[in-house]
Task: structure prediction
Amino acid sequence: MPRKPNANDRVQVLLSVLPWLAENGSATLEELGIRFDCDPEILKEDLLFVFYNLEPWTGPDAMIRVEIFDDGLVSVQLADYFSEPLQLELTEALMLLAAGKSRIDQLGDGEALASAVQKLALAIGERALDGVSVDLGSADLELMREMRTALGNRQALEIDYYTQGSDSRATRVVEPHEVRGIDGHWYLTAHCRTAEGTRHFRVDRILRATPSGPTGAYEVPETVDPPKAGLTEGGTPVEFRIPTDMLWILADVPESKVAEPDESGDRVVVTVPIHGDAWLDRLLLRLGVDSEATDLAASEDLGARRAAAAESILARYR
Result:
């Protein structure tokens, strides 16, 4: 059973249907349903909403006229302001340019988009194309395409996902409903059948993704909160006092909090939420004896734990 479209899905369909009808004249609801992969009855409801509920701000000539006849034939007449060319603000143009460059870099889209991005860059300024830098982390091109295909075909995915906080790998079946960039990383937002709720999965931590049948009938939420910054609830906060030149080791640790360097500028304090012993031991060993670590919940120095972890590894080779 296909999932029920949410508000965003319905708006996207309308934004495609209205200009198509205005350009092509008319079509039946059934034909529109096939062409735009939507429910004809839901489309009819949304078209009537556009006609009856969108308030024109200058009078009747600013209305979007929608006519639906008894035989299901639909015709649309757009208001005059749709014929006027849109004027982009510079910030809007730069955002559009960045989005286009990001899609080309990550998904390898074809010549049409590359040409459009080039023209937009020239319109903004000759140096715009070189001046816009988009960094959304590393993401496997084939994996991104697999997720986009699953989204388009409304397929579930079986994924192997690495959770850095617990240093563990688990297999889950998820039902994708969005792939987007958030705070410098690509994320797959999906309904997780294991957790029975909506979750964010960082794409560079998805180790494998394969189709796993059609999506279920779950309700896609109208809005989804982005991944939260700050300490994860339930994690054990550990404070690391490390040389500033070792900060790069913790640079990619999620949800860490970095304080200002001390007066000498040689050391910095980083607080990290720890969700697994294996990952804590790995951090202690990587940071080495030049660092200090304290379990804030237990007010316990972790120097002895680091020594025990090192001894455990050495014992394997004796």
User: Anything to note?
Assistant: The two ends are 59 Å apart (CA to CA). The longest helix spans residues 7-24.
